[in-house]
Amino acid sequence: MIQAVIFDxxxxxxxxxxxILEALRLALLENGVVFTNQMDVxxxxxxxxxxxxxxAVEGSYQGVDINEKVEKCFALFQKLFPSYVMxxxxxxEHVFYGLDELKKKGMKLVVLTGFDRRExxxxxxxxxxxxxxxxxxxxxxxxxxxxxxxxxxxVVEQMAVKKEEVLYVGDxxxxxxxxxxxxxxxxxxxxxxxxxxxxxxxxxxxxxENFKELVEKVNFY
Length: 221
Description:
By secondary structure, the protein is an alpha/beta fold. The protein folds into two domains: 4-15 and 89-217, HAD superfamily/HAD-like (Rossmann fold, 3-Layer(aba) Sandwich); 17-87. The protein contains eleven helices and eight strands. The strands form two sheets. A six-stranded parallel sheet has the order 5-4-1-6-7-8, with helices on both faces. It has a two-stranded antiparallel sheet with strand order 2-3. Strand 6, helix 9 and strand 7 (185-189) form a beta-alpha-beta unit. Helix 1 (17-30) packs across helix 4, helix 3 (49-60) packs across helix 4 (66-80) and helix 5 (95-104) runs parallel beside helix 11 (211-217).
């Protein structure tokens, strides 16, 4: 029986890929770099913003001072994201419906994200999502990024549930590995930016189109 459902944010609850890529483009351009490897960055989504910035710089810049360039781009990215690209965010279709239905089922709902607390608070409050969640853990709480299972294990401990009573919901291949490493069930929604073939290859317990299908397909009891 599922008692707690844990959610990623970007690509799962909120559409963030366009905003991340635009903030990266602007941060790199201001530092004299043309952003050319967008899909490489998309495929590392879910492992922290520094990972995104480093991937973008390493794939687009050929200079010898690459570490310095990464630091400068990251500093500017943090100033731009999320407030400067606010118009590119939106709650993903059927998310409110799905969260309402899960609350009706008595599920404990948790956010576990690689975004920092400033970014996470921005998303949850601005998008009207904060009221749904019993616990919110951010990058500062977990330290080790996905697929290291520390974050999920911390949720299991803090929510006082067993692993078999937990469902993790994400949108990326690394989310599936993350849940597997923690020993919990995983549902992957096809609402993120990554190719669905990457998700299918990782064989999640559930692969669904959206939150409406998630509520309908998952056996919570």
